[in-house]
Amino acid sequence: MSDKQKGDQPTGTVNEGRRRFLAGSAAVGAVSMAGAAGVAGVGAMTRSQPARAASNGGAADTHVAPGELDEYYGFWSGGHNGEVRVYGVPSMREIMRIPVFNHCSATGWGMTNESKRIMGDSHRFTNGDAHHPHISYTDGSHDGRYLFINDKANTRVARVRLDVFKTDAMVTVPNVQAIHGLRLQKAPRTGYVFANGEYMIPQPNDGRDINDPSKYHTLWNAIDADTMEVKWQVMVDGNLDNMDADYTGKYAAATCYNSEGAVDLAGKMRADRDWVTIFSIERIEQAVADGNYMTIGDSDVPVVDGRKSSGLNVTRYVPVPKNPHGLNTSTDGKYFIAAGKLSPTVSMIEIAKLDDLFEGNLDDERDVIAAEPELGLGPLHTTYDGRGNAYTTLFIDSQVVKWNMEDAVRHWNGEDVEYIRQKIDVHYQPGHNHATLSESKDADGKWLFSLNKFSKDRFLPVGPLHPENDQMIDISGEEMKLVHDTPTFAEPHDAVIIRRDQIQTKQVWERDDPYFAETIRQAEEDGVNVETDNTIIRDGNKLRVYMTSVAPNFGITEIPAKVGDEITVTITNLDRIEDLTHGFCVVDHGVSMEISPLQTASITFTADKPGVFWYYCNWFCHALHMEMVGRLLVEPA
Predict the structure, then answer these.
(1) Any idea what DSSP says for residue 143?
(2) pLDDT digit string, tens, across residues 208-233
(3) CA distance 29 to 22
């Protein structure tokens, strides 16, 4: 490594403050990693480039002028907020928020009848913990059809349609708790969504064996991407953390940080090594086809036994340094790269050797390890530039390290070659990172984002709760250059970035869209044409109100009701003009929804008190927007 690459730390830079800030946490981390992880001497490798905003001259300026469009869509998970956030890259302008696992008063998500149907029984949960957004594939390239994301908090997986940027399907995965790692089948197309159940639980989890952790197990799950039904599950030894799939459609792999099956922190750190679980998709499918499966509890989902003792040979367990975390497939399709977390190394698993592993042609599972380069303290996640370089976040060192994969293999095989190209400070404690197009075979190596868990001293103070800090780094040249800080709320966690031409959106709804087809069918059962009729139907204490909206008018401006009535309001926005969205909000009733151009939307609520209650359009639509109102007239029962 050259002196320029090593980048001696100058006195008086931001790095002095950074090092003081990190001293306590780094010391704690180093103590927990020492001995078991073999970190002696790593400090000599952690000198880095000062993290200063600069132009690299390669990926071009981050400035996107007013009226100009960004080159990329960036999809950020909303973390504990349960949503997906959409940014333009490289401007980092927030364009849209997509409600997924949360409830949203702006759009009515979680309140409208359409969203409740999609969320199913889980709509009763108002929280979510959205972690890993991933975009569908055809032959290893993003096809822009769907985005999938998991909810760790309530064990769900959701699908977002990218033609309308709306969540259109959701499933609660049975027999597991806390969907964490989530990845998609990359080839020949995204037929499966693969999801990890992180926490081990009794099987079935019905109250028996709650005090016997030896009976705890978790499952790897395959969801049909088209129907959003759980197709099959695989029971494994240990737990499941992060995962990825290969570029052939044959294999997937997941890290395990709790091979001990412990239920306490100390127990989860006992073993000198944990493992990466390798899944043979073809062998699992064959086991299901042959009937070599069981079911658990009330679920009829086929469960294949992938534990070491099963003898089915659908999984293999590759030992790696203890408590690994992230697992990312290199964009050249050669390696699964598992980050060590409590080891300063990453483990490069050679995918080409997995056939021999499953066929029993190798002497040891470790024979698939191509290299285990030492990178620094606390490696968590790895991304790629498509030029043979990998970029790994170092949580304890608060750095991103750029390293060359083939040089790492050569070094592992005894050659005297330096594989680390550069380290750059980030602020602070990075988790996930993501480079443009780096989850596809089309990685272009322009921009990298480090999603940092802390932001102390980077932004205006806002009290005890600080924002996270997503930092944009130019990686188009030989040196990484920090170019932008983006404060974000409630731990976005992960991101995926694709070119804008890879997504084709609709600017107004099509009237035959399946999103509201069920609502149309219900109207037809009432003999109502939602595009022309403005009518109220009473059925006992149920009131069904059908109306149209054309700026600045609702088709019905008075709704007579009685206390206790269950009222369903269905509105069709007849405006065909792009960006002319209407809303429906009933004062003092907790009722609010969005109705975009040519959309039909409905919401159900109870008139629980007598009086006059105004409803109004809450999306600005017209010069007379304030006058677009009506009255709910509720008489005593």
Answers:
(1) E
(2) 999 999 999 999 999 999 999 999 99
(3) 10
134 is in an annotated binding site: no
User: Please, which residues have CB within 8 angstroms of residue 524's CB and are 6 or more apart in sequence?
Assistant: none
Q: Strand 468-474 and strand 72-77: pairing?
A: unpaired
Joined tokens for residue 439: 């989850």
Per the rule left: phi > 0, alpha: psi between -120 and 50, beta: everything else, 483 is: alpha
Q: Which amino acid is at 527?
A: G
- The reply, when asked if residue 625 is annotated as ligand binding, is yes
- Token readout for 94 is 């927030």
Peptide bond into 199 cis (omega under 30): no
Q: Any known ligand binding at 434?
A: no
For 73-131, what is each residue's pLDDT tens digit? Answer: 999 999 999 999 999 999 999 999 999 999 999 999 999 999 999 999 999 999 999 99
- Distance CA(366)–CA(7), nearest Å, equals 35
CA distances from 338 to 184, 202, 244, 403 (A): 17, 28, 10, 15
Report CA Rg, the chain: 27
On whether 621 is known to bind a ligand per the annotation, the reply is yes
The H-assigned helical ranges of 422-573 are 517-525
**Is 123 marked as a binding-site residue?**
no
411 annotated binding-site participant: no
